What does this fold into?
Amino acid sequence: MKILLCHNYYQQRGGEDQSFEDEAWLLESHGHDVIRYTRHNDDITNMSRRKVATQTIWNRRTYHELRSIIQAERPDVMHCTNTFPLISPAAYTAARKERLPVVQALRNYRLLCPSATFLRDGSVCEACLGKSIPWPGVLHGCYRDSRSATAIIATMLTTHRLLKTWKRSVSLYYSLTQFARRKFVEGGFPGDRVAVKSNFIRTNAAPGDGSGGYVLFVGRISPEKGIDTLLEAWSRMTTRTTLKVVGDGPLAERVRQAANADNRIEWLGQKPLDDVLTLIGDAACLVMPSVWYETFGRTIAEAFSRGTPAIVSKMGAMQELVDHGRTGFHFEPGNADDLAKKIQQMLADPTQLANMRRAARAEFEEKYTAETNYRMLMEIYERVLPQGTDRSLVAKTTTIGQRDSTTAASTTVSMSH
It folds into this structure.
């Protein structure tokens, strides 16, 4: 089968970028012909605000390039991870004009909420959910604290809702959890066209043993990730257990100050994935204190891959992924006292902790391996492919696009920088 993968990379690398690369690897490892069409948000620094705005709503270049690629390569399906902002919804229309089925991953809440997080002022906000025009988001400047920037996203969403782009040009969507699926259906997406496929963890590592004994946070150090709740909880802990923080972001200085003031806290900064998985395996438990819904919670699956239980906010996808009392604990979102209590409860019972480690690894083996995910992805493709499609497996890789300054071409020559 030949698959055209489309993705707009973020300036600060995140889970969506990793997932795009993982799915490309997954397909190629099973012998499929993968074509990559990519853009990168670093290009925005060389573009005028007006150009960014117009391309967010409709990128003419994307439309013509993708039509040319589709005509030349004749893929069986186009699979989009992220199209915001430089690829734009023009990608879907290009595919529809060429009668190519489109699968769109729903890895954030952008199509329902201008900020993509359902979060405002540190609390969950669903003011734009189900509204044809997401005017509350503009009023509050929810995207980058800017009304003008939010207005661009609102215009894009409103325009393509009116044009019925999301309904006419996308064959099937998939969310990462049942919780996220319910939100999209609540927001107006047809339930029969929103499937569920989780992330997977690309690792053959054996389970860890938690011998480090520390508690671990892995993620972007930003308000929505609940880092303030975690640091406050640690200030109330009486144990000498170490808290290790992996990641970077706008609240990194807050973590650095906390580490300087409390020798039980270590800030390790950004780490390569292999190092992160080693740290997770040696940790007693992972903590994910996010105060937004999360569409999945990749680090939870990473923790389970190493047999490490997780303590997570009782909300959104996190609550769905962690079975309270079996693979970890839930705590009340934003409640530092409850988080501290749950951490101490987990660390105080070695037998319970050992049972949780076994259950966490079993959860990974059942739900989050590459092979399980491959079967789920093939089922999604099968739903959109027309009868009689040639599904022969041809191993080949093509990369087209990447930077805005690169000229995409309908060839098999690698054109990434």
